């Protein structure tokens, strides 16, 4: 239980985050090409840097925004499990599954290497690699939790993954026709290389229902890999703490176990479409509020001072993942 003082101090920020999510959803309904989660981050960035509002986000709203960025992010990751159906994933076939795993591992290793090449700190490189390779800001939040990385250090990686995912929404559809990509290949490419689920949907739907169906399944296969990747990172961190004689964190945080449990529940087929639709709304609200909270911690001056190398590293990583995803998509659908 939280003390009453803590609860009351969090209320202004939580109400502001909820209002921002409502605005993001409304803007998404008017402009479907703009994912609501991306807009939530953008609104957070604006709130952190506009005169007048910036003082509010740094002052009275900060406790609630920090609570959203940490705890609501974890709750959203749990509910994200209800999007994952193991039956749909297995329907891709073992060859496609192995290709997707290979893309995720290569993207993770390659992005981490690029980050270190651009002299980014190891923790920043790790978070960027996780977000780019798996599922955007949700993966960054999960990795930060298991590696005991401070919430402030997640701000730049979240901003980068949002920027590059938004870039994909505009660039990938423009390349589909020059590259001669059929709907299935384009959908697989989108699912294998775009970061956030909402960004995948926004990109793939430009090529029709067939592309969107493939993209969502490929993307959710990447989402499933969140649990083993985080578990591996947690085990590595735990062993390092054990060698140093420091208190060891859990191998897998409870919220990741919750994600796995709800993915298993979804896979049973017991849940009705109405329940899944309601869960999707809850997930969007939780993650949207979390992303607004994280975005509201970004100060433009600080980002410009520290983010130039990070931006170049992110763009190089985005290109790497796009190439890896396209190669995998062509191998999945060689006759398309």
Description:
- The structure is a single chain.
- The chain has 336 residues and is mostly helical.
- Helices cover 79% and strands 0% of the residues.
- It contains 17 helices and no strands.
- α6 (94-117) runs antiparallel to α7.
Shape: globular
- Work out the oligomeric state of the chains in this entry: single chain
Range of strand content: under 5%
Number of strands: 0
Average pLDDT value?
A: 89
| C-alpha end-to-end distance | 56 Å
Which structural class fits the helix and strand makeup? mainly alpha
Which runs of at least 5 residues are low in confidence (pLDDT < 50)? none
Order of helices and strands: HHHHHHHHHHHHHHHHH
Q: What is the count of helical runs?
A: 17
- State the helical fraction: over 70%
Using only CA atoms, what is the Rg? 19 Å
Largest sheet: none
Keyword list:
single chain, 336 residues, mainly alpha, 0% strand
Question: Quick gist of this model?
Answer:
The protein has 336 residues and is an all-alpha fold. The chain has 17 helices and no strands.
List the helices and strands and how they pair.
Layout: H1 4-30, H2 36-49, H3 53-58, H4 62-80, H5 86-90, H6 94-117, H7 122-135, H8 137-146, H9 155-176, H10 183-193, H11 197-204, H12 209-224, H13 226-244, H14 254-268, H15 273-295, H16 300-306, H17 308-332
